[in-house]
Amino acid sequence: MKSQKRDRAQRVYTRGYQAGIKGQSREKCPALQDDLRTNWISGWREGREDMWSGMRGVSAIHKNPAVVTGAS
Question: Could you tell me the CA-to-CA distances from 43 to 2, 11, 55 in Å, in that order?
């Protein structure tokens, strides 16, 4: 059985969330297309809010199970 790839927009959002929860700058956004950049920035903002709320690493997984970060 073949596994389906996740939606590209979802992957970009997840990577933005991971960058935000790690405290990285939004200037690190790798997306060049406007729609993908918007998704990355949205994920980054949510990740930053979670970081500021004290959700890091495992404590952030309950909010978005698709995101598994290495941050502690």
Answer: 28, 10, 15
